[in-house]
Design goal:
The complex is a heterodimer of chains A (253) and B (637).
Chain A: E1 5-14, E2 23-33, H1 38-51, E3 74-75, E4 78-79, E5 100-105, E6 113-116, E7 119-121, H2 123-130, H3 152-162, H4 169-173, H5 180-192, H6 200-213, H7 224-228, H8 236-251
Parallel strand pairs in A: 1-5
Antiparallel strand pairs in A: 1-2, 3-4, 3-5, 6-7
Chain B: H1 15-22, E1 35-39, H2 43-55, E2 58-62, E3 80-81, H3 93-103, H4 110-130, E4 155-156, H5 162-179, E5 183-186, E6 189-197, E7 200-208, E8 214-218, E9 221-224, H6 245-252, E10 257-258, E11 263-269, E12 292-296, E13 313-314, H7 316-320, H8 330-342, E14 354-357, H9 359-365, H10 367-385, E15 394-403, E16 406-407, E17 420-422, H11 440-460, H12 473-491, H13 498-512, E18 516-517, H14 519-539, H15 551-575, E19 584-585, H16 599-602, E20 604-609, E21 618-623
Parallel strand pairs in B: 1-2, 1-9, 2-5, 9-17, 18-19
Antiparallel strand pairs in B: 3-4, 6-7, 7-8, 10-16, 10-20, 11-15, 12-13, 12-14, 14-15, 20-21
The chains are: A alpha+beta (253), B alpha/beta (637).
Amino acid sequence: MQSKKIDINLKIWRQENPDAQGSFQEYSLTGISTAMSFLEMLDVLNEKLTLEGGEPVAFDHDCREGICGMCGAVVNGQPHGPEPGTTLCQLHMRHFKDGDHLVIEPFRARAFRIEKDLVVDRSSLDEIIQAGGYVSVNTGGAPDANTIPIPQQTAEQAMDAAACIGCGACVAACPNASAMLFVSAKVSQLALLPQGHPERKERALNMVGKMDELGFGNCSNERECEAACPKGISIRHIARLNREFIKAALFSE
Amino acid sequence: MKLDAKIPDGPLAEKWDKHRFASKLVNPANKRKYHIIVVGSGLAGASAAATLAELGYNVQVFTIQDSPRRAHSIAAQGGINAAKNYQNDGDSVFRLFYDTIKGGDFRAREANVYRLAQLSNNIIDQCVAQGVPFAREYGGSLANRSFGGAQVSRTFYARGQTGQQLLLGAYSALMRQVHLGKVTIHARQEMMDLVVEAGKAKGIVTRDMRTGAIASHAAHAVVLATGGYGNVYFLSTNAMASNVTAAWRAHKKGAFFANPCFVQIHPTCIPVHGDYQSKLTLMSESLRNDGRVWVPKKAGDKRPPTQIPEAERDYYLETKYPGFGNLVPRDVASRNAKEVCDSSRGVGETGLAVYLDFAEAIKRDGTETILRKYGNLFQMYEKITDQDPVKQPMMIYPAVHYTMGGLWVDYNLMSTIPGLFVLGEANFSDHGANRLGASALMQGLADGYFILPNTIGAYLSGCAPGVPDRSARVFAETEKDAEALITRLLAVKGKRTTDDIHKELGKLLWDHCGMARDRSGLQKALARIPQMREEFWNNVLIPGTGQQLNQSLERAGRLADFLEFAELMVADALDRQESCGCHLREESQTEENEAKRDDEKYAYVAAWEYQGAGKTAVLHKESLTFEYVTPSQRSYK
């Protein structure tokens, strides 16, 4: 498809720092190529603002190929924008029409502090992993990699869960700002693989406990997280997390 | 100064074992009295930091991203090599060693590459133990795929996300050490400078990217694992924040920079679509197994591909290299694509692309089979370009992908500054003049999990234990320099944005210091770079202040370093008057116009010593000798 040029009206959340009062500011862009990515459109806006003596919009981004999990904003109410299974950096302007109005705001949650404009602090997700999202094995002395056979289907299911990029869209999408999909992806991966079994009880309890402590909400089966997830992580993993959690809570020593 | 690579004596296969025995150690109870700074949290940095902490050292990790898990290692798609020989197809440590050193066109050290091949197997064991979900066979054993440059199947993978899974493995080990109190993470901190006191690395100065606060951090040793410099070209497959700053500032403090001109240009990337383009996306090379590369025979032919009859198509790789056809190595494929585009036969809106056509494969094997093999890649391509490769040929073009050059290190991974260690893509590495597919992940993890933790002790055992002190005047002075740099950048208040100048630099380097180079082009670039630097320092426009989150300021600081580094890169390319690995030097070709290496004159590592601003760096040569392999000339005809 040949690319076209379109005009776009933007309403973007601007906030100087974590303590400042934020507000929406309006901008309009003309002649945006539909072959551009959404972030390239923001680049164009920022170059324009810079040359006009204004201050560019701060936004997080890095790999721009949908894997680092750094980018993300809510576009017209949807984390990562309207295309399913797509990070903001992989969203292209051809999905918008000439004259469209786009409201862009940061991922909002009590556990995500706004640093500036669209940039949020997601270190709370690191803290959840620190609570148990690992196998406690030191470097060196691991047995030969083929010692424990793992059925292909199990490995594939574990990989489905492990595909999480930690972007936080699930939290932003959830009316309770719950991190259940994120937690369940890690718990699920390590519950499926034999390497994760020795610590599976503590892992489920500690990671959920940490999530609660950090101010994330609980799951009330809204399924918004699954719809927003750019990697298609299924809420079946939340079901597995619930089973892991209940088993651990009932039978832990 | 004479370069001493500290290669251990003895037979190749025993060097690493003997070296570990001969090295001094820090006793277990004393390790907690040593402090180590690790800059960068990719495969090399995260694996090193986690392993050092497991050993008992106190580790501080610095990353420019919001979390250590964002590092660009995460974007590696294909896989990781190891000499397990699980397929029983004739692989061995020696064969992996041989393939790697040959792939690097005989410009790497035998001892280092052999050690890398030995450790490759431990990496796979370690990653599986961590819960990395590698692809499996139905029987439950690990699956392998084959990759370019090898005749055995030795690549382990996790779908097209191997880098992500390996990085998350290292990241989880790191998070465990944070939980245990042995590692502190400093996120959104940029290293501004290395602190060197009495000739030794003693710490770093950082800028908090949220508040602009400049601070010093002291340690017994500093480890740089800050990745490659591909973004000097502006457009590359690297992440947007990948930069040369930490390595370059260490270079200015005395660390030699080795082989900066060795840059890998990957043939199968999605072409540039406009001036606003911010980065390039790699498509896995495996596509060339079934795709046929072609352009129209007639220059300027603008008909859609389906309307160009067979007889008017030029399948130039198949014609020119009947033996290997579309599967020629990366450098040959890239160079030929550029050649046909330079002769106005390129396709697409910009004319900077060639077709990669699956029509014949689909006719032969059926759409279903081809989609099973490449479905996810076709999907990725369609997402970006809005074109379906089943219905019309893909368009591809080469892009900068990986940099083999980096800070010079000895066998212990220590740079020419005692106490400064360099890991992963940031060092000049074991890949010589060209890296084989699926070898970057292997090197990053070998450096971090297994090499550094075994070699750093010998250096630390010579340092006094205890809490490192940052009261020395040199810390305050280095902080002042960092502040002065920020002030100077903000004071320019010119008319051009950082990206605008960066794009100009990138184009200059792509044109004159890319896949094919010649003396006059390189000299032209060498004359132009100082002018661009001057333009930058007189005319860059950076909005905002230094005391806030200011992404424009961050980019400008990195470009300032790229503008200095670029000159060294071009100077190195000018010095190397041979075609080698990734590059064709126009003056050095065979009668058949193929790359001609010159072992007599250029079998060395070029290590450059900084001489001060505006002065020409001094070249030191570490000569490469080959006892176990015989350098041969590549031929793909």
